[in-house]
């Protein structure tokens, strides 16, 4: 997590996947100027967010409510828009909740159908387009 947990605010109903890192300070400024030892900053995660595996949230960043952070992303800027998906290094907006819901309705089984699918073994796998 972080060595300064008091600098991190996490809202309600937030999912934090494995190996998510909260970076609340940075010592690199000491290499540039002997006047400073560390840079510090708060991290604020809104309500109903999902932080994907191996993502990194940098100091000074705020995420609004209802944001999905894609796995492996490095969040080094704040995002004030709600109902979005961000990803990449550095993270940027890559989609919306409505787009993901539409995609999910087209290609994934609903929760209710999962138990039936397990017994029938008629899973539908998603094939990604080659680039």
TrEMBL record:
Broad EC category: transferase
GO terms for MF: maltose O-acetyltransferase activity
Assigned keywords, A-Z: Acyltransferase, Transferase
SUPFAM superfamilies membership: Trimeric LpxA-like enzymes
EC number: 2.3.1.79
Record has Magnesium as a keyword: no
The name this protein goes by in its record: Maltose O-acetyltransferase
Organism expressing this protein natively: Blautia wexlerae
């Amino acid at each position: 997590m972080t060595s300064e947990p008091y600098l991190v605010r996490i809202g309600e109903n937030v999912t934090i996947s494995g190996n998510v890192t909260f970076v609340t300070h940075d010592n690199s400024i000491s290499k540039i100027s002997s006047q400073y030892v560390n840079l510090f900053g708060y991290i604020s995660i809104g309500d109903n967010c999902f932080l994907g595996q191996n993502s990194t949230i940098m100091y000074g960043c705020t995420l609004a409510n209802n944001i999905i952070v894609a796995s492996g992303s490095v969040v080094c800027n704040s995002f004030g828009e709600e109902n979005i998906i961000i990803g990449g290094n550095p993270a940027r907006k890559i989609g919306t909740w409505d787009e993901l819901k539409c995609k999910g309705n087209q290609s994934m089984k609903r929760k209710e159908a999962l138990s039936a699918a397990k017994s029938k073994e008629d899973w539908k796998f998603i094939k990604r387009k080659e680039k």
